[in-house]
């Protein structure tokens, strides 16, 4: 039996690692009524300020229907608001509400604890190297 080339095996390992990390994040955020996809949107809005669904779709790789559901969930929870863009009336700007900022702060703490458990087996340098490698991998277009 032959060992597959590293690129093939790496793809599988990345997929399995993503599933494990997503499951841990979903479990950690469950008490807030959030999932990893909600957290990703909150993270991007917190980072970028007001944004649009189109921007979020581009940043997350989500499909339009999935992003609509995610934004509606967060709006229903009172974590974000949609307001018509002043520059393009066809577009809604999304911003965090004070409750959304508070929920995101709590979610960030819970996500940090989950990440600590997931990556606790690695030395700080190893985690930094992994993050650097993945960042460089994603920057290649």
From TrEMBL:
Gene3D superfamilies: Winged helix-like DNA-binding domain superfamily/Winged helix DNA-binding domain (1.10.10.10). GO terms for biological process: response to stress. Signal peptide: none annotated. Residues 7-139 form the HTH marR-type domain. PROSITE patterns: HTH_MARR_2. GO terms for molecular function: DNA-binding transcription factor activity. It comes from the Bacteria. This is MarR family transcriptional regulator. It comes from Amycolatopsis panacis.
């Amino acid at each position: 039996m032959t060992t597959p080339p590293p690129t093939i095996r790496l793809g599988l390992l990345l997929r399995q690692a993503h599933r494990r990390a997503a499951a841990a994040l979903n479990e950690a955020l469950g008490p807030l009524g959030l999932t990893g996809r909600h957290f990703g949107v909150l993270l991007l809005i917190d980072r970028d300020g007001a944004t649009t669904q189109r921007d979020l779709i581009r940043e997350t790789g989500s499909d339009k229907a999935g992003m609509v559901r995610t934004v509606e969930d967060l709006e229903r929870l009172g974590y974000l608001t949609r307001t018509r863009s002043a520059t393009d009336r066809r577009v809604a700007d999304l911003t965090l509400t004070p409750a959304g900022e508070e929920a995101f702060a709590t979610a960030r703490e819970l996500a940090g604890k989950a990440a600590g458990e997931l990556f606790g087996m690695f030395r700080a340098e190893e985690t930094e190297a992994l993050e650097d490698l993945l960042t460089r991998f994603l920057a290649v277009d």
